[in-house]
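Good morning C.,

I know you're traveling, so I'll keep this short. The sequence:
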Amino acid sequence: MFKKVLIANRGEIALRVIRTCKEMGIKTVAVYSKADADSLHVRFADEAVCIGPAASSESYLSIPNIIAAAEITNADAIHPGYGFLSENAKFSRICAEHGIKFIGATGDQIDKMGDKATAKETMKEAGVPCVPGSEGILDSLEHARKTAKKIGYPVMMKATAGGGGKGMRAIFAESELEGAWKSARRESAAAFGNDGMYMEKLILEPRHIEIQVIGDSYGKACHLSERDCSVQRRHQKLVEETPSPFMTDKLRKKMGDAAVKAAEFIAYEGAGTVEFLVDKDRNFYFMEMNTRIQVEHPITEQVVGFDLIREQIKVAAGEKISGKNYFPEMHSIEVRINAEDAFNDFRPSPGMIASFHAPGGHGVRLDTHCYSGYMIPPFYDSMIAKLIVTARTREEAIDKLERALGEFVIEGVKTTIPFHQQLLQNEDFRRGVYTTKFMEDFELKDPAK
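The tokens, ready to paste straight into the viewer:
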């Protein structure tokens, strides 16, 4: 087992990893930018190293600075969390070259699954159902036209290096294709330095359902059931729950088996998520694989009694998994609390938290790095907390979440708490009747108006 783990991340996920490491008797090293000097992950780690100024490119994305921090503190492993360098194949390889264990996928595995077009071809080889689409990357506008005609409109143009909804365009007719092609490539080049595009059939009324998998270094994988992430805004998840209200036992088994097949086909090592689009007839199609821990991993932990960070560390240290699949025994829902003004187009709201009161009680979990007096910096993602509730049934979980949101006090900045409170009043959500288009029809009412 590792003696010392450096956490190459910030905020709540860094704190989350530190907690499990402490429980396992492993020393921890926090890295931080100058903007994060007062963050809780810095306070609770055994050691902390400043790796640069506020800009991510000069701190949390600086591989030389992070490797140097690991070497001067004699860390024998690095946990990348999510975001930043967590799915960077180059970083995984550099860690290996320096004799530091990357707690996550190997560089080759990230290469196979990180590029969406390559991942789709890999999954076809594995026999996992995929959305009909282009064979690899589109090399021209004419290629895009022929492909769209072949698979039939509507289609979805996607950036092969994409994420967070960047470089994605829904196209319903040929007349829209050229404009979408040009704007998607520009956006992708600006966001990722890569304007490669591929195309898929647009699945109407889809659910976004993902399967949590874990694989060991001996080629064995298992799944820990599903999470429904369909409530999204601009392809950013807002609410996640497990089990999915749309799922059946038969579908759960089929999707779970497909996810394990996908992981074992590439001999996947670590925790990962195989993401699917599921149509209204419960046909499912591979969408992508996230080769890292997910933001929403706590709801899976709550319903199967599993510490996913602990399992990541154990697998990275060479331990075998049991090979047993896990199924939800409770119902858990997570809402992301962002420092955003929901009544002003979700505009970011950095600043000083004047007052902070966390909700509590049976079945309530709060993952956060914030506290009264904490300054939310404007340089990073706006998520400041994850509120997770767990109960015997979905109805009980929703009631518990409503109560917990009512107790949650954050003053000094705008947050998405009022949005979630209104969401829970929505009849379609309460009945579990929603798709990825849910937010397009959701009417948010500003109480000040």
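Safe travels,
E.
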